[in-house]
Amino acid sequence: MEDCIFCKIINKEINSKILYEDEEIIAFNDINPIAPIHILVLPKKHISKLTDLKKEDEAVIGKIMSVINKLAKENNIAETGFRVVANCGVDGGQAVGHIHFHLLGGRKLENKM
Ligand code: 5GP
Ligand code: ZN
Q1: Of 7, 31, 80, 103, which is most buried with the most CB atoms under 10 A?
Q2: Residue 71 Cα, ligand 2 centroid: separation in angstroms?
């Protein structure tokens, strides 16, 4: 997808610290972390937002949760705890129009939502 920052990261047109990659999924450090661990995990397929998910995307979203689990363990936050966030649309505060999940941890996270 042209002009999508995350597609450019996937295509290695923009540099990022990639922590996990397979045929369908990529995970990299957020450029502007709000916690000691702040990783973005996303499908390589360009899906704009959560409400654009189709039945055929269910499997990759499930796999993303397994990748998040693996990354949490590798980054030593599985025991201390962490938060997974998917912002959707304007009111959800979504800034980048390629679906992604924030993995946040390494400090006590304030406010529940
Ligand atoms: P959103 O607000 O859409 O849920 O989150 C977008 C996230 O992408 C933000 O936390 C922002 O810091 C991150 N981000 C934006 N541009 C880049 C980039 O070029 N590289 C990386 N690694 N992260 C980015
Ligand atoms: Zn994209």
Answers
A1: 103
A2: 22
